[in-house]
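Incident log, support desk, overnight shift.

02:14 A customer reports that sequence design results differ from what the structure should imply. Their input is reproduced verbatim below. On-call engineer (initials T.W.) acknowledged and began investigating.
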């Protein structure tokens, strides 16, 4: 009876263990491995009776779940979104605590500390190579590869600038672009793509920083003086142009008045010339007429014409004939004295004062 009971008990245990083993086997075979929305997964086969050991050259896409045994396989994920590695002297910020800025010398020998942000991302297609040769996660990749190379290259290129060049934004930008190009040449084959190199704050040693600040203030004053001088010169030029404009206007007005006077004088001259020519023509015509009249008078008919004109002039007038003697006086012997006294009396009466007559 006892043996039979043990047999039943062992059978019962067997019925429980077999399903449990099957469940464990299924879990082992179908163990889930996940990737987040920005991650890619890499599988490494450690042992398999049917597959080749090593890194599987397959990219496990983001946001999915994959099933395979855990112990005989390793699983690695990489975040492929943009990573910002900030190297700064600010203790509360950056990839590392404490002063993590780039410290180097400028080409003219001055010490400088430069804050830099390196923006990079992982190339998903290179993820299997990263696992095989460099790192198993993002942190290791940044510490082993990205950080040391970016610090060295950036420090070397920015060290080619002069101290004064750091105050010129274009020169800093040019070096940042050159650093980006150099870093991509080095890191692209290792699966890292550098998107930008962004230089931030920069600091010199205290004494030199003060000297630079003093120089900047002096330069600003010089520029201010230059601006004031330039403004004064421009104001003077403006006043000069205004004065020149007024002078030109006065000259133009005088020229206009002169032209008007000249036109009026020319018109008056033309008018007087025409009048003179008309007078000259009239005088010439009159002279010609007189010449012709004299010529006519000098001819045989001239005496007759004179007589005719005298006759016309004496028409209607009384004529008295007085006898004259040989000495030029009046011949009293032959003169009718009564008629003579009568003539002179009438003339005296006509010339007497009317007022006296009235009195």
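02:41 Re-run completed on a clean worker. Output:
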């Amino acid at each position: 009876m006892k043996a039979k009971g043990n047999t039943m008990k062992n059978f019962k245990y067997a019925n429980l263990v077999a399903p449990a083993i099957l469940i464990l086997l299924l879990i082992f075979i179908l163990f889930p491995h996940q990737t987040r929305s920005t991650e890619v997964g890499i599988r490494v086969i450690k042992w398999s009776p049917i597959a080749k050991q090593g890194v599987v050259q397959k990219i496990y896409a983001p946001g999915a779940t994959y099933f395979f045994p855990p112990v005989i396989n390793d699983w690695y994920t990489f975040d492929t979104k943009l990573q910002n590695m900030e190297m700064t002297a600010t203790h509360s910020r950056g990839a590392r605590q404490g002063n993590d800025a780039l410290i180097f010398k400028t080409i003219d020998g001055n010490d400088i500390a430069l804050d830099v942000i390196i923006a990079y991302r992982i190339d998903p297609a290179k993820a299997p190579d990263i696992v095989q040769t460099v790192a198993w996660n993002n942190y290791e990749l940044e510490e082993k590869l990205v950080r040391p190379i970016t610090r060295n290259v950036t420090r070397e290129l920015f060290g080619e600038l002069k101290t004064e060049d750091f105050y010129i934004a274009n020169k800093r930008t040019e070096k940042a672009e050159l650093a980006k190009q150099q870093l991509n040449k080095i890191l692209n084959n290792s699966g890292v793509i550098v998107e930008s190199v962004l230089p931030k704050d920069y600091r010199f040693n205290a004494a030199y920083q003060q000297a630079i600040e003093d120089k900047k203030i002096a330069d600003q004053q010089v520029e201010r003086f230059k601006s004031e001088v330039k403004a004064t010169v421009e104001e003077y030029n403006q006043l000069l142009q205004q004065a020149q404009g007024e002078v030109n206007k006065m000259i133009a007005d005088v020229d206009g008045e002169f032209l008007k006077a000249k036109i009026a004088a020319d018109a008056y001259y033309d008018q007087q010339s025409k009048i003179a020519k008309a007078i000259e023509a009239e005088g010439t015509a009159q002279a010609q007429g007189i010449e012709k009249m004299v010529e006519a008078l000098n001819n045989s008919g001239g005496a007759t014409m004179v007589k005719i004109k005298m006759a016309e002039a004496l028409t209607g007038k009384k004529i008295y004939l007085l006898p004259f003697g040989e000495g030029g006086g009046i011949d009293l012997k032959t003169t009718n004295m009564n008629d003579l006294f009568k003539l002179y009396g009438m003339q005296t009466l006509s010339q007497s004062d009317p007022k006296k007559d009235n009195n």
